[in-house]
Amino acid sequence: MIRFEHVTKSYPDGTTAVDDLSFEVAEGELVTLVGPSGCGKTTTMKMVNRLIEPTEGRIFLGDDDISSLDPVALRRRIGYVIQQVGLFPHKTVLENTATVPHLLGWPRRKARERAAELLDLVGLDPAVHGERYPDQLSGGQRQRVGVARALAADPPVLLMDEPFGAVDPVVREHLQSEFLRLQEQVRKTILFVTHDIEEAVRLGDRIAVYGSGRIEQFDTPATVLGAPATPYVADFVGSDRGLKRLSVTLIESGDLEQPPVVRLGDGAREAAGRLADEGARWAVVLDGEGTLHGWVAADALGDGAVRDHARRMEAWLPVGSSLKQAFSAMLQHDAGWIAVLDGDHFLGVLTPGRLHSALRRSIGADLRDVERGEVPLDAVPGA
Ligand SMILES: Nc1ncnc2c1ncn2[C@@H]1O[C@H](COP(=O)(O)OP(=O)(O)OP(=O)(O)O)[C@@H](O)[C@H]1O
């Protein structure tokens, strides 16, 4: 969808901001550009909407070489979100959001309806926030308006330059989660600049790690963390990359342990007998359809049915959650294991031991991939 072919940008003073960059962002993919200050991230991004023209090389949007397109028309195909947001202070939030549809000549009513829809999508109530002015919003709310405005004309491509850089870490994490949910719905092709490796790892389908003017590694977050391509990348992602990996490794059903299971309607004494035979101190309690109800301690089973002794379970997660979420749920609930569900259906439990092997699994898989040379080296200039 976006393709860089041997793109270089040099300035007359001799600075080479980016040097022979070649990479591709697939349709619907979110690629984060991460690296220290001055390494060329913003330059890369601004070349896509022709705020900066390359010195050499070509950039394609779909099949079009962007140098052959009218820059104004090009920018209307591309949503742009920046840290300072750049909302018009004298226009309401709704009017701000409707800017691009308005420029595209949409009828006023349609533009405003679309703007209201977008505000709703980014978690702002158009009836409450739509008529306010930008200085009547919090920093996080202004960032949301920036995202809504960029999406208003439904552009296929979004460029985002440190869009959550100006808000505090808690709001930032919240905005990131919302943004991921939003991207699941809208599936735009996104280039996202950040200097924060945590943010890059959390949001990116793939990450481009920049050295000075060059991409040192272009790969999935799990591979960048598990198998950094160069000592520079290893240093940049940090010595705690094992921990960061927890957030990009997802729970698979093969990671789970199958604990003893009893059913709600089972007789309690009979269930206790079975658990004693298996040497089990507790069991997961399911209903007839395999839906998780809770758990029961073997020594709590007395008369009646299992349902009379079962306890509700708070500590559960959907399959596909990250190991970090699992670890954090274990700590939050002070639990030695976490139930994992597919919809309502119980799949098994994740224990600390299984969590550790899941982490090993994902690291091992990446190393094997790298050895097999499946990382496209042409995507990594200088590799
Ligand atoms: N007009 C210019 N003339 C000369 N050098 C420039 C010019 N504009 C940018 N540069 C240089 O190009 C390099 C890349 O800048 P760029 O803004 O792309 O970095 P960045 O990675 O986005 O940094 P930051 O995270 O600080 O925004 C820097 O060394 C910068 O000083």
TrEMBL record:
<keyword id="KW-0547">Nucleotide-binding</keyword>
<dbReference type="InterPro" id="IPR017871">
    <property type="entry name" value="ABC_transporter-like_CS"/>
</dbReference>
<keyword id="KW-0677">Repeat</keyword>
<dbReference type="InterPro" id="IPR005892">
    <property type="entry name" value="Gly-betaine_transp_ATP-bd"/>
</dbReference>
<keyword id="KW-0067">ATP-binding</keyword>
<dbReference type="GO" id="GO:0005524">
    <property type="term" value="F:ATP binding"/>
</dbReference>
<comment type="similarity">
    <text>Belongs to the ABC transporter superfamily.</text>
</comment>
<dbReference type="InterPro" id="IPR003593">
    <property type="entry name" value="AAA+_ATPase"/>
</dbReference>
<dbReference type="Pfam" id="PF00005">
    <property type="entry name" value="ABC_tran"/>
</dbReference>
<keyword id="KW-0813">Transport</keyword>
<dbReference type="InterPro" id="IPR027417">
    <property type="entry name" value="P-loop_NTPase"/>
</dbReference>
<dbReference type="InterPro" id="IPR046342">
    <property type="entry name" value="CBS_dom_sf"/>
</dbReference>
<protein>
    <submittedName>
        <fullName>Betaine/proline/choline family ABC transporter ATP-binding protein</fullName>
    </submittedName>
</protein>
<dbReference type="InterPro" id="IPR003439">
    <property type="entry name" value="ABC_transporter-like_ATP-bd"/>
</dbReference>
<feature type="domain" description="ABC transporter">
    <location>
        <begin position="2"/>
        <end position="237"/>
    </location>
</feature>
